[in-house]
Amino acid sequence: MVKIRLTRMGRHKSPYYRIVVADARKRRDGDYIALVGNYEPFEGVTKVNEELALEWLNKGAQPTDTAKSILKKAGVWSKYINQKNESKKNNKK
Predict the structure, then answer these.
(1) Which of 4, 44, 59, 81 is an S-S bond match for 63, by CB 3.0 to 4.6 Å?
(2) What pLDDT sits at residue 5?
(3) Which pLDDT value is given to residue 93?
């Protein structure tokens, strides 16, 4: 299974995180497939590549709870849900 999750970076007691697409069987800070964005909790900065995140969500990547909340704050999750609902409407017609 492919997941969208956080990888810890930075110094001791001063972390920042990369939002990555990775195989669920890999280690937290191990290899990843794609870099989707960055999250800096102490500065409150979140950068997400919306196109890439939506692409992986449409391919079936499952976000972790924390990654999902970050995607919600960035507005990516609502775009994904809207796309999903539109495709369901188009399939019914």
Answers:
(1) 4
(2) 96
(3) 61
61 contacts: CB under 8 Å, gap ≥ 6: 2, 3, 4, 21
Query: Would you state the structure tokens that stand for residue 65, as one six-digit string?
Result: 């709870």
**C-alpha closest to that of 25 among 1, 8, 60:** 1
Q: Are 47 and 73 in contact (CB under 8 A)?
A: no
20-35 b/e with 16+ CB inside 10 Å = b? bbbeeeeeeeeebebe
DSSP one-letter code for 31: -
Please give the Cα distance from 73 to 50 (Å, whole number): 12
